[in-house]
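Late entry, written up from scratch paper. The run itself happened at the end of the previous shift, but nothing got recorded in the book at the time, so transcribing now.
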Amino acid sequence: MGAAAVAAVLTTMLAVPSAGMAQVAEPERLVIDLATDTGAFHGGASGSLYGIYGDGAPSRNLIEGMHLRTVSTKAQDGPQHPGADALEILPPFVDSGGKDVYIYMTDIYRGFPYEWPGADGPAKLADFQGKIKKQVRQVLTMGDYKDHVVYVPFNEPEGNMFGTGNWSYNKTSWLNDPKDYFAAWKETYHLIKSLDPDARIAGPNTSVLYDQVKGFLQYAKANDVVPDVMTWHELSSPAAVRTSVAKYRQWEKEVGIDPLPINVNEYGHNYHLSVPGQVVQWVSAIEESKIDADLAYWNIDGNLNDSAVDANKGNGQWWLFNAYGQMSGHTVKVTAPHPNQQYTLQGVATLDEEKKQSRAIFGGKSGDADIVFQNIDPKLFGKTVHATVQEIPWTGQVGDSAQPLRLADQEVTVGKDGTVTLPMTAMNEMSAYQVILSPGGNNAEPADPSVSWRKTYEAENAAYTGKGYSKNGPEGTPSDVGKFATSGNYNVGGLRTGSDGVLSFDVDVPQDGTYDLGVFANSYNLFDLVKEQGPTNVFLRVDGKDPQELRLPLGYKWVVWGHTDTTVKLTAGKHKITLAAQDPDLGVTKGDAIIDKIDLALRDENVTRPAVYEAEYATVTGTRPGYDYRNASGPGAVPLPKGASATFWVHSPTDGEAAVSLDHLGGGRAKVSLNGEKLDIPKVGAGKRGTDVMRVFLSGGINKITVTGDSRELVLDRLRVAPSSGNLATKVYQAEAGTLTGAAKATEAYTFATGGKAVTDIGNGKANALTLDVVAKRAGQHAVTIRYSNAEQAPATHYNPDPIARHADLSVNGEPAHRVLFPTTFHFNSFRDLTVPVTLKKGTNRLSFTAQELPDFDGDTYNQYDQRSPYTPVIDQVAVTQLTEK
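Output as recorded:
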């Protein structure tokens, strides 16, 4: 939304029309009927295929905050892709709130179709069943974690083991003659159950819900081998999800099988993934169907299917699932203006009667629409509701996103017919939106919008001078879902090595001030011109002045978008913003980049004031929000008796110090934990209303802050979070200044390393190490922030690029090492920060970094396809910071 949209939302929410009032032009309506219960909230759309690489890639914060419910992944030690080994991701996934890991047992083989060896079908099946025995035996060593395992013995059998290809059982598709597949299913089912009587087995895991699946059900029932979970894939549309589930449920009735849990363990296409306004349409269909489903794996593993950025940052899609996962209670009937039609306005809504809260997420449409809440129960909400409206924008596949934008926060009178209408204007089809309704009428202090004037300028509409210009597109569209989504469908190339190109944007701003400028761009990391330097550098000027050098984002393919952010000072009126491949003061471009758009936004007090996280919108346990507190911010507050807690998902743009202000209404005291670690600070709260300001170190991206009642009953109002500096002691240590042993060495090969130097070749044996002696002013919790790069990539067998997450074994003062995973940065000259919490003693502490190749699960074999690295990443520097201020 632009400024006009924000103003419109604010205005209409102050004077919301009742249902049935005459309007000049009737907008589309998304109608939410709070009186029609459609079943308990399920949360099943938060699933992932190959989305977790290992413990830390992505972080547990990202897994838990996304409310990930199911993960489908490869068999332990399978060579299909690097990482994503079932039994290595199982503990961090379950410990982060996950429900089930679906093991693709077939992915113990290389290739797709699977390259299972054997002279004939029976020999191939015998080899596979030998591997199945080993997999089940390994699962049985996992203790209670094994209860979260679901075995998937065959994946897309019609295109693989029981299809027509050279690697198939006998080149006969089971869809035409199911005899051999059915026999193999029966034999394999009994094999797994004989080894693990409590096993849950899923199938048939077909690429679509073929009509022949009904025959599979008939055979399975007749032979007592019915799967415990029914699985298939929907690389189709949200409408097909609803249709397929209804069709399958009818088959169950006709065959005489009790309803089974369903997991559609692949859904969505490149055009949809990362785009909140697209994915929310899938979410609505999946939630309505009350099934589990996993986002499809089209690109790299370990990034939650284009939800995670680096180790600990989320993009817009991640924040959509964060909002979805915080729904509770039961779903209610949602009537879309074009029911069950993709690429139109769709949504899902819930009502939690205990929390007295309704939530709706919706999107998929540009322009205007009315969001209509019907049958608002006055016993729950009263005569006035408090409505918070948020936008979750698209930030690209590899573009970090801050928390959802607050568009409006107002009290609205409920119409006599029990209806509230919230007019939305100038919506963006790539964004998703959330509305939270709570009881109003308690003189609550509304929050100001967190956005001000903003506007997007498309690169294809900008002027270009010089050589090398290309207008690329259309990119992904509803008729070409294999391509990636792009703002405006087109992008511009030309800024590359040897070019004299200049891309000029004519902008018009409303007032003098500082403006945030985001350049949405992409460079393919393996493209020849990009390999030389890594991030492509271009040069920004405003009206020919004030030059800046920008490094543009790298991606795993072309048209994989991220954003590079800066600020510019502008006077009111028209200006020319240029991106150029040459600058007389700063140098020349190296690399090759495409530009999608620039986003320009005024940095006024709406944007710069602290981010607000209302307690009544947090995830609460052992308590519920109250709405009778006078002078609270927002609609209410949360009482925290001893043991009750409120958890907030807090964004930080960088790794560093922040001021976290805890506003409360008094009544008791509470403890605070950060990212699962209890903070070594005095308890917060008091007998009377007040604010406790905590200076803490936040990791870049997503932070989990939990406030837990400790004595009496603290009433928690909200958190406010703002950047801070100068209160936490930080010291930076250059890696090349440490002690290097064995083959570890300093290098000047990476120009974007601090001072042009970094340390490489750490690992491949413990003798090749980096040791740093660091000083702590006091004993206790510290943050160790490692600036690193990692571009190792394994040979791929098909369309998925296979970057490798390197690891470091970090030892503090000779204690047993802690293993840290470092996701890809796409080039060894592209550096990222990753923070690890450690406990240090006062004075000098020794940090040791080393690595060696990890063996397979049983410890007696190693990967044969270079999918487990023996090295740490390249290390540039290490910063050590107190975690909290005493």
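Confidence is low (pLDDT under 50) at residues 1-23.
(Scratch paper discarded after transcription.)
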